Here is the input.
Amino acid sequence: MDTFDWIVTGAKAAFLVVILLHVVPIMAWVERRGSALIQNRLGPNRVGPLGIFQSLADAVKFIFKEDPVPGHVEPFYYVLAPLVSLVPAFMTFGVIPFASSIQLGDRMIHFQVADLNVGLLYVFSIASLGVYGIIMAGWASNNKYSMLGSLRSSSQMISYEISMGLSVIGIVMVFSSVKLGDIATQQGELLTHFGPLLLPEALQFPRWGVFVQPVGFLIFLVSVFAETNRLPFDLPEGESEIIAGYHLEYGSMKFAMFMMAEYLNMFTASGLLATLYLGGWQLFPGMGYVLHEVQAYFQMSALAGDWTRIVFEVVSFGIKVGFFMWFFVWVRWTLPRFRYDQLMDLGWKVMLPLSLANILITSVFIFFGWV
Amino acid sequence: MPKCIIDGREVEFKPGEKIIEVAKRVGSVIPYFCYHPGLTVVAQCRMCAVEIEKMPKLQTACSTPATEGMVIHTKSPKTLQNQKATMEFLLINHPLDCPICDKSGECDLQDYSFDHGDAYSRYTEERRTYLDLDMGPVIKKNMNRCIHCTRCIRFGSEIAGIHEMVAVKRGNYTEITTIDGLPLQTGYAGNYADICPTGSLGLKDFRFKKRVWFLKKTPSVCEGCSTGCNLEIHQEDNVIYRCVPRENLEINRYWLCDEGRFNFNYLHDKDRIIHPTLFQDGAGQVSEWKEAFNLSKKTLAVQKTVILVGSDLTQEEGRLLQQFLPEHFPKADVYHFGTPGISSSAQDDSEDQILKRKSKTSNLHGFEKLGFKSFPGFPKGCQAVLVIRGGRAILPDLKGIPAVGLGVFSQSQASSFVAVLPGTAFAEKDGTVMNYQGVEQKLRQAILPPGQCKVLSEILMMWTHQKSSFGAA
Amino acid sequence: MLVKKKKGIFQEFYLVEILKGLYITFKNLFFARKVTLQYPEERRNYSERFRGVHYIKATNGVENCTACMLCPTVCPAECIHIEAGERADKEKYPIRFEIDVLRCCFCGMCEEACPKDAIKLSSIYEMSTTYREVYDKSFLLEQRGNK
Here is the structure.
């Protein structure tokens, strides 16, 4: 790597970190306003226009609040736990491409901090590190509720990670790659088959993951809810049963770190969903036409045209991610919490067989060359 | 036994018994104002009039003796109509100041007005009012509330022995007052407030202190003298507000003297020592139990000790001391003391032929029965005194001998002492006392001891188990 | 007894039901009337009989209260404390009249029990403080929110 690569990678990483740091307060605001509106309330609307700066005020409070360490906890792990859950949350997004690439001179710049050749595996391995933070928090808090919460969290993670991993295998089989950049690029092609049927040209649509792997998408979507501890699978912190679960003993910035980790995990999961199943940075149908019109209208140079394309791709990716983010909130305020045995039933008796069947059927389809 | 029929029930009675008592015994309660079982019958309130068959008019139940075969109706329409009319007449001039009146809650007039009276008054004219004169330190009069039952007049002349209450003027203008408006002389004035069926005679001591329905009642016995009058201690939140007599026909009948009635005030005296206290040059210093015990033991560890046990303690406490003292003070002389000049039951005599007796402690007779010797005066060479008492026994002159007090003392009483270990008085402990007739009666605990005061048995227990460390301490 | 309800295939297959639920919340999100009251600017109209901060009614500058103790008697929270006294122009009056508002449950029984129409509950409901408030007699005698 030469200096230019360092600068480019640094810039991409910085851009990503800034985005990630902004996602948390914005999502906190969206969550609060959204839940309020769904429940026929108004929500925080006093600080700034539409209450948008409420999160800022919250952040100020989190930072300046007294930060005590309770006497009965194990101090080292107690302090370490929020860090352990926050850092993986920051790390995972690095491999998700948020736009395609651009030719600068003789260099190709990928809009992705690191296009690892084990991209998907990296995401899963790092994301599952987050649960250590939760287990640490539950154990170090020396509190029965916290302990229960973290135990629930760990067993839930294990149960759903399996079906999540298996559901993605379908995608990996179809696109023959675990590099997220490759997967995103391949989804720009057109789908020529609907099962055994050959589609006429007029009906051909993008080869997005959700169309080639609908069952896999559903399993992945449900598993992702469980992985991020969001309702209806937020048993680790079920307020009515175990008060707040693993972060019961946490306050001020340490609590905020858990909250940030939750929203960042959501963001990563949304990015992953968008990348694997909604074509990633691929433009929406129709957006390509608009792009051409814009490029033609302003008579752009090749470079300027490329940059415009990148902007369009980032916007497209942002819309997809934003939709999933909103979907997380939307589902949270629609569905009640599962009972724990129902959660386990669903994970082991429905999700796991379904994902195995999905792999089988996918391989049959691939064998016949239908996808 | 002759029989009569009250409200359709056949009832036996003793010849000469009045209808009102017979009816009360069988549960047919007849309302009354002027009647009182301890006083003569005048039958002037007319509230107790009942219908008796073969008699043309209603007859007052309080004055009519029951006779064989009499048929009495206490709930007949005629009787009820009379009660209603009587109530209305009595309430014509009665002010509606129950919110102010201390009697409300235990007021006969209020109760019967609720039971038999009308909720509305038809009387629109101006009500009769009086100016009230002072009646001495015990009783506050409010003549507006009076219904002229004359219980107070009869009590004065029949029980208290001084005919000092009189009714002056006539009819509507009748006024109950003391002769020439003098303050009350009798030592039994508190009973005026008890027997008054309205709030027109009230205790000054209790005035506006507490509404009666808040008070919790404990039956107990007066410790004022060797009569042992039965009384009821009324307290709330560990504060005694008053004592009222309890009926006991063999001892005090329905009465209580003022001395016994207001005796409880020393319990809540600010001057009372309620913490272990050490004295130096007459000034008390609150200390710890441990230090007080150490100093007491040090003071009493001398050759010649006298132990004075107040005869206001209970039998149980006396017995406890008889076991404790020979063990811990084998060489000490143990005497009882109580009232100067009254050292034995032979000297105890009635003071005023009513209730009061000369021995001002409750258990003189009991202590004699237990075998305590009376106090003859300090022997030569006495080096220390231990005084054990309740709150009532009068201290003899200690003649400058170092003394340790155990029990209830006030700061001024104990100023010449070395140390005081605070104990409990009559309302703060259970126990038995024996009166001059040899009747043993129970004291009941009504309130918790204040401050660090402890019952005698507990103090003796601590005394025994306290590691003595004088010299080192 | 556990009654097994018969369910249709769509109910058994939760996704359809979940979509229905999402539709309902989506409807609420944009189209439902919001019930929030913007408090300091908007205020709810309470009934005339609303029970708020207590006050003691006075006639010609003299408190109506005669310290009859019916309000502490009837008070279920035991939050009223009265000490009675005597003065030249009033046979019985409260020397101290204290209401521990932290214990008060605003049931209004004191108002109902009062024979002198002295203790009343006003319509004032803004009574938050930063300390443990006990209303004393001078506070209660201010005729705030008199009704």
Remarks:
- Chain C has a mean pLDDT of 87.
- The CA atoms of residues 7 and 13 of chain C lie 10 Å apart.
